[in-house]
Amino acid sequence: MVAKWFRENVWVAAAILLLRLYVGWEWMTAGWGKLLDGFDATKFLQSAVAKPVADRATMEAIFPTYTWFIEHFALPNVKLINFLIPVGEFLIGLGLILGGLTLTAAFFGMMLNFLFLFAGTVSTNPWLLLIGFIIFLAGANAGRLGLDGLLKPYLTKWWNDRAGTDTGAGKTSWLGRHEARH
User: Fold this and answer.
1) Residue 163 domain-assigned?
2) Does a structural domain hold residue 154?
3) 157 within some domain
């Protein structure tokens, strides 16, 4: 009952809009700053390998597979990382602010927060991760007051036309026919 209310209520959509604007601004300005300043992740990645997040008692790396990933993929491909991080941050922010591909933007924002945390950077990551999770939990309601809400009727019609279905005149959508078979 609470989940349904959270995912469908217009007042929740308005509250989520405020969260989207805040988190989106944080992501967009972080990405824009990196784009303007010539972002280079090399030292950050080297530090994450040299001093991984470790257990205080044993000094063993807590995320050894992530440290391996950084050392064997991210560092050798640092030029790709230097492009993906600022562009990704900017696009996450833009998606959240405009409410376009909102759940996708929230998902990738949470993924970046986790990756930064695994590398040992706390900063604002836990806070942005929590708010991103709240936005993501709202489902389609998160983009209701944004581009997602404006485009949903058109995309639904386009999808149904491509799937060869018509939800009017007593016909069921592709999903309804699929569920009826199982």
Assistant:
1) no
2) no
3) no
For residue range 54-97, list pLDDT tens digits in order.
999 999 999 999 999 999 999 999 999 999 999 999 999 999 99
How high does pLDDT run on average in the chain? 91
Are residues 160 and 178 in contact, defined by beta-carbon separation less than 8 angstroms? no
- Residues in Cβ contact with 171 at an 8 Å cutoff, skipping those fewer than 6 apart: 165
**Residue 53, domain extent:** 2-145
Q: How far apart are CA 127 and CA 152, in angstroms?
A: 30
Q: 158: burial class by Cβ within 10 Å (0-12, 13-18, 19+)?
A: exposed
Residue pair 99/145 in contact (Cβ under 8 Å)? The answer is yes
Total count of domains within the chain: 1
Does residue 131 belong to any structural domain of this protein? Answer: yes
